[in-house]
Design a protein that fits this description.
heterodimer, A: MetI-like fold, 12 helices, 73% helix, 0% strand, disordered C terminus, B: mainly alpha, MetI-like fold, 79% helix, disordered N terminus, membrane (chain A)
């Protein structure tokens, strides 16, 4: 029981900050229904032109398809690597594990522009081996996205593992289960939700990755954020408002679903 | 017990190996390559690093970046403190509402959020249209493509990162200490100012460092909201890579950024316990 609830001043300030956080997302909605060809508020009539453009314009459509493809592949590989890594860490002594965790979290901590430069170096190098895996290729972008998203997946799986009761694993071990049996039959079923969440959120992160993608693509591998970037720099295309609304709605639904499914006893008041 | 641990060591290491090897090849080695560029392009030597401290353009970009990041950090941490306070200590409904305010924007792409600020503040955006419709202003105010809009956009992105360490510091505060303060007759404000705030100060310092580190490498938000006028370090790297190919300088700036971040992270490791529990979103 908290002895002191936030007072009116604290509530007002928090509400103000909350509003600041939501406002730019909400402002996108009316803009997306403008009939005009420029970024503007709709005057009088509303229109779905820009939403139609998303499915009719081949550029937008192929960018959406490409981002989905890369996102799914990234999610699969990233989550698998992260889950295997986190399981290993969970079984290791804390002394060994700190250094390893620190290492794999690097892409999350290092400034994105440095990671972008690093991946640019890697992919232009790979280009010399084969065009199909290097700079401006689907495989190249996927590799870069795996590097950038894997730390987030590791953190999420580690958090899920921290909530597993070690005694059930000890029991399995005591009964003679092999490492593989312990993982498949005991640990994984207990962190299934965490792993699924990690996979979903890695997909979201890959689907919207721009900082690194900008450095490693030029004309062929145009992902959705890359296309949005091109439309944002110069004359702002209102189709971006439409795709933004779609992205905001999808992300919000995913998060609300996650919030509803997740039991978080630590936040509930006793 | 010892034997058992040792027998578990190898399978555990084998499980971690794929990711560690992947990142070693796809991340650590290429970074060394970038570091190599910084001393070999265009010629062997430390010329690029001398430019970092000697070239007035590069220096002014670095100084501007530090100035903007400092302002952003102070504003973001203060705002995060206010929202986290209610998120941690408020009623259930208040917590649910604020949770949405904090975490929905967090997962939405930087591009969409930068676009959101354009939609809100540009000449024909929401704010100017409404103000004109209400007759409060005659012509639209120039609210984007300038430094304040860059700061607003960056604060927006960074608040959630500050919330996590602050929340873990606030959750760790012992209620009985607050109870004691009240028992001795302290007012609400006094309890907050003399007891609660000092107790959560480690969280504030952790949040400040995290936010500052993250803000240094910002690229997308300043590039869109700054309109090319107030260039920050990360955008300078991009321009040096793709507009006036000067890879050596781009690489040198990258190495310098990593060194700065490493120094700040070493400072942060004093607050590691707080920061680590905070990053588990």
């Amino acid at each position: 029981m908290k002895i002191q609830r936030p007072g009116p001043l604290a509530l007002a300030l928090a509400l103000l900050v909350g509003l600041f956080l939501l406002l730019p997302l909400l402002a996108v909605v009316p803009i997306s229904f403008t009939p005009g060809r420029m970024l503007s508020m709709p005057q009088g009539s509303l229109s779905l032109t820009h939403y139609r453009q998303l499915i009719e314009d081949p550029d937008w459509l192929s960018a959406i398809v490409l981002s989905t493809k890369i996102g799914l592949l990234t999610s699969l590989v990233s989550t698998t690597l992260a889950t295997s890594f986190a399981l290993g860490i969970w079984m290791l002594q804390p002394r060994f594990s700190q250094l390893l965790v620190g290492f794999v979290l690097l892409p999350m901590i290092v400034p994105p522009v440095v990671s972008a430069m690093t991946l640019y170096f890697l992919l232009t190098g790979l280009s010399q081996l084969s065009q199909a895996v290097g700079f401006d290729s689907v495989v190249g972008v996927t590799v870069a996205h795996i590097v950038m998203t894997v730390p987030f997946a590791v953190v999420m799986v580690l958090v899920a593992l921290a909530q597993v009761d070690r005694r059930i694993d000890l029991a399995a071990r005591g009964l003679g289960a092999t490492v593989m049996q312990r993982i498949v039959h005991v640990i994984l079923p207990n962190i299934g939700f965490g792993v699924a969440t990690a996979a979903l959120l890695v997909f979201v992160l890959s689907w919207e990755e721009i900082g690194v993608t900008l450095f490693i693509t030029s004309v062929d591998a145009i992902t959705l954020p890359r296309l949005m970037w091109m439309g944002l720099r110069d004359n702002v295309d209102p189709a971006i408002a439409a795709i933004s609304v779609v992205l905001i709605v999808v992300t919000t639904l995913i998060l609300l679903l996650r919030m509803a499914l997740q039991r978080r006893p630590e936040f509930e008041e006793e | 017990m010892m034997m058992r641990n040792r027998s578990a060591l190898w399978p555990a290491l084998a499980l971690t190996a794929p990711l560690v090897l992947f990142l070693a090849c796809a991340y650590a080695l290429p970074f060394l390559g970038v570091a190599l560029w910084s001393v070999t392009l265009p010629e062997l030597g430390t010329g690029q690093y001398q430019r970092l401290v000697g070239d007035p353009l590069v220096l002014s970009v670095f100084l501007r970046t530090f100035r903007i990041c400092l302002v952003v950090t102070v504003v973001a941490v203060a705002a995060a403190y206010a929202i986290t306070y209610v998120w941690v200590r408020g009623s259930r409904l208040q917590r649910r509402i604020l949770e949405i305010c904090i975490f929905v924007p967090f997962w939405i792409s930087l591009l969409t959020r930068a676009f959101g600020w354009l939609a809100l503040l540009s000449n024909r955006g929401l704010f100017n249209s409404w103000m004109q419709a209400l007759g409060l202003i005659d012509s639209p105010l120039a609210l984007v493509r300038n430094e304040p809009s860059v700061i607003a956009g960056m604060v927006h992105v960074l608040i959630p990162f500050a919330v996590l360490p602050l929340a873990s510091a606030m959750r760790a505060v012992d209620e009985r200490v607050l109870l004691a303060a009240r028992g001795m007759g302290a007012s609400r404000l006094r309890i907050f100012w003399s007891v609660f705030l000092p107790l959560t100060l480690p969280g504030v310092i952790g949040a400040t460092l995290i936010v500052f580190v993250f803000s240094l490498g910002f690229f997308v938000t300043p590039a869109i909201l700054g309109g090319g006028r107030s260039i920050m370090v990360a955008e300078l790297v991009y321009l040096r890579m793709f507009q006036s190919p000067d890879w050596g300088l781009g690489a040198a700036i990258s190495v310098a950024l990593v060194l700065i971040v490493a120094a700040l992270m070493a400072l942060l490791s004093r607050f590691a316990a707080l920061a680590l529990t905070g990053s588990g979103k």
